[in-house]
Amino acid sequence: MKKTLVTMAIQTAIFSSAVAFSNTAIADENPSLAEVEVQSSSVDESSESTVAKDKPEKITVTGSRLRRDSFSVATPLATMDREAIEDTGIGSLSDILIDELPQLSEGTSNSNSQSSVQNTGLSTIDLRELGTNRTLTLIDGRRVVSNSYSGNYVSLSTIPSGMVDRVEVITGGASAAYGSDAVAGVVNIITKKDAEGFSFKARGGESDAGGAREYGLDIDYGTDIADGRGSIFLASSYDREFGLDFEDRKRAQQQDSWDYDDELMCNVMLTETGDQCMRDITKADWRSLSDSIPGGVFDEKSSTRPDAGFWYDQNGLRDDWHEERYGINTNQFVMLRVPDEKASAAVKVDYDITDDTMFYGQVQYSYNRSINHKSPESEDECDLIVTRDSSTGEFGEDCIGRIPKNNPFMPEEIREQASSRGVKWDRNFAEVGNIVTDNTRRTIRSWAGLQGTMLDGNWDWDLSVGFGKFEQRQRRFNEIFVANVRNALDVESDGNGGYQCVDAAARAEGCVPLNMFGEGAISTEAADYIRSNPQINTDIEQFNVLGYMAGDLFEMPAGMVSSVFGFEYRKDSQEVNTNVPNGGVTFNYVPDFKGDLSVAEVFAEAAFPLLKDVEGAKNLSAEVSVRLAEYDLDNIDLVQSYKAGLVWEPIEGYAIRANWARAQRAPTITEAMSPPRGDYDSFDDICDGTTATSTEPGHANCRQIPGIAATIASEGVFDDENNSYSPNVGNEDLFEETADTVTLGITMAPAFLDGFRMAIDYYDISIEDAITSFGNEDIIEFCYNSSLEFGNDNPFCNDVQRDPTDGQITGVMQRLYNQDEISTSGYDVAAEYRFDLNEYGNVKIKADWTHVISYAETKTSPDGQYTTDYTGSLSADVFQDAASASVTWYKDSWRVRWSMKYKSDVVSSKSLYDDFYEPLDADGRGGLIPEYQAACAEDSSVCVDNPEKPYQLFLPSYVRNDVSVSYSTDLSNGAELRVFGGVNNVFDNNGPFILGGKGNYDSAYGGGKGRFFYAGAEVKF
Q: Which residues are bridge partners to 177 per DSSP?
């Protein structure tokens, strides 16, 4: 039976009567390991020392709302201050954090979302590669409204850059403090306060190879109000990135279509004459072209008609179609970086109503627009699209179909050999125009509250309310209205020397005959008739109320026990509306859906000083916390998060810290409630190569599919030509996932080395019942080649949809399940050393290093569990080692910083690695296909010695160097001027050639941006 929140709260109270949410904690009287900032002070200078002795002051930090640095808390904390942010010279806050904090990687960015319809223009981050949904992004310690219906994604581009004071990252065990979604940790964006004066900053930059141009403007103003009782701070930012095109980089123009020959054991690349071993050709021979050309290809070659087919170039009709000689390179339409424009503004107010009560409030507004230009729509006669009947809500599928044999525009040469069913075709609809995805987003975030003290100042309290609203207006220009194309291809004479659509109803609705034969053959009127500009409108709202009390419970021999007790109520709602007409368009179909969920939470934390100034323990303290959340989702039990931490300082300057935490994450609205949403992910069909006698795994079941059987009968073999359609769908039966996190670390600030401090932390995170979907190829495998019986009673077979005519996969349904176990472990090293060079200035050296010991996913298949270790795999974005380091020199008004980013060597794909190495014998010989392995085992003479390793399987390590210079001076009118500039990626390292990457680059290595110069100036007065 589901436990109630009240019951669990009582049980927890009995178990630990003094636990509390650490909004306030006690700092050491002499905090040798902490650089603390006083939260509030009402004493004059003459009494400061007395206060410090009589009553330690209270501080705040991310993860427990207590401000400390990464060297003084039980849970590891990484920080980045305003100065470090400024020295990077990069406009995007997410890019800055990813470069400087190796625990972070990119979630969605302008370098990896080119194919996305929904998320282009977002800039999100991912902690420990555990997923953006498991990385909670906060602003000033508060949850804020999401910027995507895909999940709880907070785009960092919605935060005014001039308002950011620093960033703190808790790398595990934060759910007890902030609730669900903090499984991996928390990224807390902390904004400026008590700022005075006016500042204006302008910056701009561009790659020396061309492209990637960007500029930004920040205007900020802060002042006291009401005779110093309050303050107001206003910030505004404007940034524009112009993107990076295919034409900007020669590497992007290199065609490639790689494969591996299982028998010759060599790397092959597609050429004009088919696949050839790469050792026998040059890059000039590589090809990767498409038959979707502007003039159209008709009845192209098949196994019985090789090197045949009609096609059009600018000179007219030809009958010698050869795709890898005359096709089109569709990569030319893929941008390497998508352009982005963003503007934001915020106002922050603090006001002391009385000496004991303060009002605070903040309102943020952001505007973001990202326009992604893509290829004109490319279709053929059997490209299936998703349809939905608006009256019944039922989904279906459709395609344009063949061009009727009696189409009057058809040349006689084509008609003479056409089937009675009509003519097969492939075509680029250039006359309709390039597809353009236009995402416009607006976000409002606001909160206001009261803070105060009571009981003679011994207890603090805080009560606030927050509201956020996000809207996305997405338009997709120049899609194709499938039903209208079909109507427009069914043409007859109008009796007056012209032509008309056969269907009278279609004519009444404006049908215009469509001529598909030849470049420019589609008339303007026909293009207008078949064009569709669908929209997806997303609206998300969040409302929350937060309250807590913080103070000292009682005194122990080593000091006071501090605590916090609080509650939070949150309601999230979202609605998605799509105006796709009946009949469907060539578009990732996202159906209308809406949902909401609310959660009521109570939380508590306590900090216990156990020992102080005794032999072997200068300081020993413990922290415990609990958070209980009750969701209104029927399948979600009480979500419980706990944390226990210990900090032991045996002698001054050295401390050991340990932390255990349990976190639970409830599914999001989309995960629990979404109907199938259109998406495309590449996959291979297990039935590829099926013949009447093939014996590869699954082929016997493949032959039972009527469409595949028909293709084998006519062509001799079934070749995989799937459309990669794999819609995502939610699952109302999902329940909460559970994570256990253990961290153990040591911090050092030795007295003999003034200015040096270091922290080493081990982490281990294990997530059970992780919410995820099976991979497309896993779903196909479980249908055709598993212990489950093949057929309609196999649920995985029901999620593999095929065309009844030719057997091609038309869609693989990616349902969400609680079926993964994800575990990762490793350690972080953070070090900092500041020293004085006397008249030559001073220097700060800083380094952060993350080493991944293991990153593994365990999935449960019909045949049992299987585990894959993704450590050191680029496809999973898990680098075994990642580091950043910098040296900053200060002298008078000068500041010069040299920084380095490092990523270790990786394999391009774990599955490719396993496919290659697992079949090899002890002598490194063998083959990739079962028949060849068996032959090698029986007769070693047929084995291939020293088989080639797959091309670009092993990718080298990556190092990037940046340099920045800043100079400040006072102006005659009392203003201060700072000029700055720098070079990012000084040595123009673009990373290795990536097969299948955008432009043969990967966003983990900068996405082809290359060497980047920037400069700017800031005026303050």
A: none
Task: Answer whether 448's CB lies under 8 Å from 364's CB.
Answer: no
Residue 364: strand pairing partners? 346, 445
Q: Say how far apart CA 641 and CA 179 lie, in whole Å.
A: 7
Which among 174, 194, 203 has a CA at the least distance from the CA of 96? 203
DSSP-assigned beta bridge partners for residue 835: 843
Confidence of residue 933 (pLDDT cuts 50, 70, 90): low
d(CA 110, CA 117): 12
Asked if residue 90 lies in contact with residue 899, where contact means CB atoms within 8 angstroms, the answer is no
Query: From start to end of 632-722, where are the E strands?
Result: 639-651, 654-665
b (16+ CB within 10 A) / e for 424-454: bbbbbbbbbeebebbbbbebbbbbebebbbe
H/E run at residue 913: helix 910-917
- Share of residues in the chain with pLDDT > 90 (%): 57
**In angstroms, rounded to a whole number, what is the distance separating the alpha carbons of residues 620 and 608?**
9
As given in the structure block, the two tokens for residue 244 are: 């990076």
Report the 10 Å Cβ neighbour count for 713: 9
CA quadruple 992, 998, 1004, 1007: dihedral, nearest 10: 90
Res. 25: pLDDT tops 50: no
Beta carbons within 10 angstroms of residue 117's beta carbon: 21
pLDDT tens sequence across 936-982: 665 555 566 667 889 999 999 999 999 999 999 999 888 999 999 99
**Which stretch of DSSP H or E encloses residue 87?**
helix 82-88
**What is the spatial distance between Cα 21 and Cα 14, in angstroms, rounded to a whole number?**
17
Distance of CA 891 to the CA centre of its chain: 40
CB 724 within 8 A of CB 811: no
Q: Specify the 3-state DSSP secondary structure of 147.
A: coil
Task: Give kind and range of the element (H or E) at residue 360.
Answer: strand 357-376
Which residues on neighbouring strands pair with residue 593, listed in sequence order? 576
Query: At 362, which amino acid appears?
Result: Q
CB atoms within 10 A of CB 282: 8
* CA 436, chain centre distance (Å): 22
Could you give the dihedral angle defined by the CA atoms of residues 500, 503, 508 and 511, in that order, rounded to the nearest 10 degrees? -50
Which residues make Cβ contacts (< 8 Å) with residue 54, sequence separation at least 6? none
Closest CA to 120 of 369, 353, 377, 463: 369
Could you tell me which of 569, 539, 362, 544 has the C-alpha nearest to residue 466? Answer: 544
The Cα-based distances of 942 to 215, 278, 931 in angstroms read 62, 22, 12
Q: In this structure, how many other beta carbons lie within 10 angstroms of the beta carbon of residue 967?
A: 14
- Give residue 113's pLDDT: 78
Half-sphere exposure of 465 (CA within 13 A, CB side): 1
Pairing, β 185-191 against β 135-139 = parallel
pLDDT at 81 over 90: no
- Collapsing DSSP to helix, strand or coil, 521 comes out as coil
Q: What is the pLDDT of residue 944?
A: 64
3-state helix, strand, coil in the chain (%, to 5): 15, 45, 40
Please give the distance of CA 397 from its chain centroid, rounded to a whole number: 30
Instruction: Return d(Cα 334, Cα 501) in angstroms, integer.
Output: 35
Burial (CB < 10 A; 0-12, 13-18, 19+), residue 1, is exposed
Asked which of 25-29, 53-57, 73-77, 531-535 is least confident by mean pLDDT, the reply is 25-29
Quote the strand ranges of 909-957, DSSP E: 954-955
Mean pLDDT over all residues of the chain?
85
Which residue is associated with the tokens 């904690």? 25
Cα–Cα separations (whole angstroms), residue 100 to 140, 316, 830, 883, 992: 20, 56, 12, 8, 21
Strand pairing class (385-388; 395-398):
antiparallel
Per-residue b or e along 350-377, where b marks 16 or more CB atoms closer than 10 Å to that residue's CB: bebeeeeebebbbebbbebbbbbbbbbb
Tell me the residue type at 273: T
- Residues forming a β-bridge with 762: 744, 827
